[in-house]
Amino acid sequence: MVCNSTSRRDGRPLQELGFYNPRTKETRLDTEALRLRLSQGAQPTDAVRSLLEKGGLIEKKIRQAEVVGKAKQEQARKLAAKNAAKDKEKGKESNDQASEA
Predict the structure, then answer these.
(1) What are the b/e assignments for 43-65, b being 16+ CB within 10 Å?
(2) Which of 10, 18, 19, 38 could potentially form a cystine with 29 if both were Cys, beta carbons 3.0 to 4.6 Å apart?
(3) Do both 57 and 21 map to the same domain?
(4) DSSP state letters, 66-97
(5) Nearest to 21 by CA among 51, 43, 54
(6) Does the CA dihedral 60-65-71-76 come out positive or negative?
(7) Which domain holds residue 82?
(8) Are residues 54 and 14 in the same domain?
(9) For 20-35, how does the pLDDT look when each residue is reduced to its tens digit (9 = 90+)?
(10) Domains: count for the chain
C-alpha cells in the first residue's frame, strides 16, 4: 500500500501494491509498481522491507540497529561466560576449604 507521508495513518492509500497474509504466508506483490515507487523515492517500513528482501526485490541492507544489537548480544555472552567461570572457581574454593576443615 502506498500512502502520502502527509496523509493520516488510516487515510485512503494512493495505490495498493501487494498483499501479505501472515497465517498462510501468502504473498502477492505487484513487482513492476513496487520498483517504480521505490525508484521514485518511496521508503518501505521495516516489515515491508523484510518482505521485499525475502522476495528478492531489494538488496538486503544491514541496518545500524542490527550491528549494535549483535555487538550487545556478544558482549552479554562474554560477560555471562566470565561470571560463570568466576562462580565455578568460587565453588571450588569453598569445597576445598570445607574438605580441609
Answers:
(1) ebeeebbebbeeeebbeeeeeee
(2) 18
(3) yes
(4) HHHHHHHHHHHHHHHHHHHHHHHHHHHHHHHH
(5) 51
(6) negative
(7) 62-101
(8) yes
(9) 788 988 878 778 888 8
(10) 2
Q: Are residues 8 and 21 in the same domain?
A: yes
Residue 77 C-alpha cell reads as 555472552
Shared domain check, 75 and 49: no
As a whole number of angstroms, the distance between CA 41 and CA 19 comes to 21
Cα 53 to Cα 62: distance, rounded to the nearest angstrom? 11
Amino acid identity at 64: Q
Return the C-alpha cell found at 49: 522491507
- Quick: pLDDT tens for 9-18: 566 667 777 7
Rg of the chain's alpha carbons, rounded to an integer? 25
